[in-house]
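Handoff note, outgoing to incoming analyst
You'll be picking up this chain. Sequence as last confirmed:
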Amino acid sequence: MYKPTFESTKAAFEALFEEFGLPDQIHTDNGEPFASTVSLSRLTRLAVWFMDLGIVPVYSDPGHPEQNPEHERMHKDLKAASARPPAWSLGRQQQKFEAFRYEHNDVRPYQSLYGGPVRAHSLQNSKHIVDTFAGIVFSQRRYGCPGRIG
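Most recent structure output, in case you need it:
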């Protein structure tokens, strides 16, 4: 997203929650629209919406990327697989991103998931809840899948 707003980010998360369910928590850095360095407890409208859905916003301390190592490792792997060297066109670059996402979610085994891929683990144990604010039914899946993309 270019210049993410509360509305555009909320819409993207609604689509993700409809497809994959609600997590217990969302770990983010301190950037907008996830956190604000000038508000009480770093809370933004998006963080309050997460809490209304029962999702706990978790923040890394400013300047400490080591507090979210799975995410930082994913970025390192993503750059190695898709950006070095970059593709010669936007279409080819998107293909490189899609290939990485497939390998990351559907093929790559994870020690923390007993040697299985993320997608196989993330589609288990679902139940439904109703978001009374919008009347949307989300499938709620409680799982700890660090590094899940898409």
